[in-house]
User: Which sequence fits this backbone?
């Protein structure tokens, strides 16, 4: 089952399973990151508004910090696009696994280096904001490309909006037969289920991440990194094995 999550031949089920897993990871990372640096790094709406507020109030350094976080998120998304297209043009199995493995490595470094926060406070805090923003952009672009923009995992505004729309359709009373023939209102129960599950898993990840960070500190991100490694490893290993076999065949000639 784990191999199907990052297989280059996608199924709707695999997209949703990977989306749910990454929503949990994003919720945990976002909540744990807030306890670490008192700042959420997954939703750019608030950061863009914060940049505008700080510029108006004359807080140029804070505005620049917000702009840096915005650029880091954008760079993360761009990195995923580059890695996916690079792997796709070469016919690799790991076109979606590269970004996941990079995210895992960054989370692992964040968890292992976090113990030095007190010693390197002025360096580590700004760097952490940028790294977490980069990770969120990286991850959101992964699921966006895999699901063709059907699923988002690092922010829930769009999910809650779509959920509300489908709930409105669900409770709508189609009581006018004449109108029903031209415009029958019916909820997309499949979409309702996926948005509800993504929202629930993001929230569950937030609870788990906040609790784990509160009790264990930065090391709480290590299990998240190991899970992502386990998901990304099979296609990466398959590509390494195929390339090694090809190299041996060429040398054998």
Assistant:
């Amino acid at each position: 089952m784990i191999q199907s999550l990052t297989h280059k031949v996608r199924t709707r089920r695999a997209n949703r399973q990977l989306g749910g897993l990454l929503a949990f990871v994003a919720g945990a990372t976002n909540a744990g990151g807030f306890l670490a640096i008192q700042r959420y790094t997954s939703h750019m709406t608030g950061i863009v508004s914060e940049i505008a507020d700080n510029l108006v109030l004359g807080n140029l350094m804070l505005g620049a910090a917000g702009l840096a976080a915005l650029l880091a998120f954008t760079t993360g998304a761009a990195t995923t696009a580059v890695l996916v297209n690079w792997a796709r043009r070469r016919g690799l199995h790991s076109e979606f696994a590269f970004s996941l493995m990079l995210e895992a490595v960054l989370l692992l470094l964040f968890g292992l280096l976090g113990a030095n926060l007190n010693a390197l406070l002025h360096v580590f805090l700004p760097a952490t904001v940028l790294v977490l923003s980069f990770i969120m952009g990286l991850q959101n672009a992964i699921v966006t490309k895999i699901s063709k923009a059907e699923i988002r995992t690092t922010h829930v505004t769009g999910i809650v909006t779509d959920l509300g729309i489908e709930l409105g359709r669900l409770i709508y009373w189609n009581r006018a037969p004449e109108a029903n023939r031209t415009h029958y209102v019916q909820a997309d129960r499949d979409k309702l289920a996926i948005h509800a599950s993504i929202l629930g898993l993001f929230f569950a990840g937030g609870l788990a991440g906040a609790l784990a960070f509160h009790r264990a500190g930065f090391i709480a991100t290590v299990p998240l990194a190991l899970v992502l490694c386990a998901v990304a490893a099979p296609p990466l290993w398959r590509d390494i094995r195929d390339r090694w076999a090809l190299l041996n065949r060429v040398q054998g000639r």
User: Anything to note?
Assistant: The chain has nine helices and no strands.
